Amino acid sequence: MSRLVAINPGLTGSSYELGTRWVTIGRGDKNAFQIVETSVSSQHCEVLLRGNELVVRDLRSTNGTFIEGQTITEAVLQPGQTLRLGEVELRLEITAPAPSAASPAAAPAPVKKPEVAGGTPKQYRVLFVDDSMAFLEMVTDLFGTRKDITWEIHTAASPDKALAILQQKLIDLVVLDIGMPLLDGIQLLGLIHQRYPNIKKVVLTGESDDRHRAACLANGAELFLLKPGDEDGWRLIFNLLTSLLRWEDSDDFVSTLSENGLYNVIQLECVGGNSSLLEVRNQQTAGEIYIEGGAIVHASTGKLVGEKAFHQLLSLTDGEFRLVPFRAPPARTVQRQWEALLAETARVRAEENYSADDGDTILITKKRPPTQPPPTAGPVPTPESKEPPPKPIPDEPTKPKAAHSTSGMNIITLEEMVEADTTMIPNPGSKENPPAGPKQ
Q1: pLDDT digits (tens, 9 = 90+) for 24-70
Q2: HEC profile of the chain
Q3: Fewer beta carbons within 10 angstroms: which end of the chain, N or C?
Q4: Model pTM greater than 0.70?
Q5: What is the pLDDT of residue 12?
Q6: How confident is the model at residue 412 (pLDDT cuts 50, 70, 90)?
Q7: What is the pLDDT of residues 259-274, one digit of tens each?
Q8: What's the mean pLDDT when you consider all of the chain?
Q9: Torsions phi, psi for 94 (to 5 deg)
């Protein structure tokens, strides 16, 4: 076996056992080998064991990556040589011959493809562009092994390789990071948008910045997403990208309401703490949903504002929407948490029909079960010698069931929201979740 060992006095004993996969090293807790030291960047570099040597790639670190005192961008570390990250020194120790199977994984920047299962579903070509080989390897494994995959995955670790693939392949979707060497992700995004305007583009990054977000959306990105930190987050990313691939552009709007995309986008924007504006329209109406710092703060459509407008917009089953850079809302008409709003919308769509009135209210028509004759209380003895008595006071007055109360809300937990694999918030209007209606 082989391992990378820290030799600084204060870090003695800190080591990482190397395998056949790329390993990220840095101060952040998401790295495979975490080194908590101020001179080490959050994600400093990545390494790959190749035989008895180590391929090292710097990830735009602040204080640099060095082999034997020489600054490197990408180089090979031999046994006995010193690797320095900032002020932290490490050494490669080979304790056993490396397995020969490790050699095929040594290519610095391969274009990986999953095995595409034969079948009728359309296969989409998706290109992931990121300067981290560990990330590209993870994405390929994570998405390429799904049973419902309809993608042919390509990867590029640099802008020039991404542009070369775009010249050689008919790519349907490009997913790129904004942190890239030489030509940064925003510049690359603008270049791709200029050369290939019909290719869908999504920014997937670990850098949450409103300026970067606005610049990416202005340069042709359909979505600006943050890299998730758990399995549920990656599943939501996969579902959203799949929906985006199936959307057909119309006019200036990029997403159709017939899919579950609006639910997914609102969910991702709020979970990521983003600020954005969703413009929604169909042939009858148009409206806006404002999200600021991960909170839904305002919604409007026609004369409706606030929660009524929000529910009205999310009740639409046809039409289009788009995500645009945030601007200050004209008012703040929504106070409830986004989880409660989406849960309420799911319940409302299952139980009620909305229609906009001419005023600032919504006409709500309950879907009731088939009418039945009023229940009889059984034979009640009637006094023969008396006229019908005065109206009696019932012992147990009839009360509406709590489940049909318009003022209450059936709580839906986040665990229940993510139960379906196709969307985090089940869409009651979809085929899988038909609206509640009269039973035969």
Answers
A1: 999 988 899 999 999 999 989 999 998 889 999 999 899 999 999 99
A2: CEEEEECCHHHCCCEEEECCCCEEEECCCCCCEECCCCCCCCCCEEEEEECCEEEEEECCCCCCEEECCEECCEEEECCCCEEEECCEEEEEEECCCCCHHHHHHHCCCCCCCCCCCCCCCCCEEEEEECCCHHHHHHHHHHHHCCCCCCEEEEEECCHHHHHHHHHHCCCCEEEECCCCCCCCHHHHHHHHHHHCCCCEEEEEECCCCHHHHHHHHHCCCCEEEECCCCHHHHHHHHHHHHHHHHCCCECCECEECCCCHHHHHHHHHHHCCCCEEEEEECCCCEEEEEEECCEEEEEEECCEEHHHHHHHHHCCCCCEEEEEECCCCCCCCCCCCHHHHHHHHHHHHHHEEEEECCCCCEEEEECCCCCCCCCCCCCCCCCCCCCCCCCCCCCCCCCCCHHHCCCCCCCCCHHHHCCCCCCCCCCCCCCCCCCCCCCC
A3: C
A4: no
A5: 76
A6: very low
A7: 556 777 888 788 777 8
A8: 75
A9: -100, 110
Whole-angstrom distance, CA of residue 426 vs CA of residue 436: 14
Q: Could you tell me which of 93, 36, 41, 32 has the C-alpha nearest to residue 64?
A: 41
Q: d(Cα 242, Cα 236) in Å, to the nearest integer?
A: 10
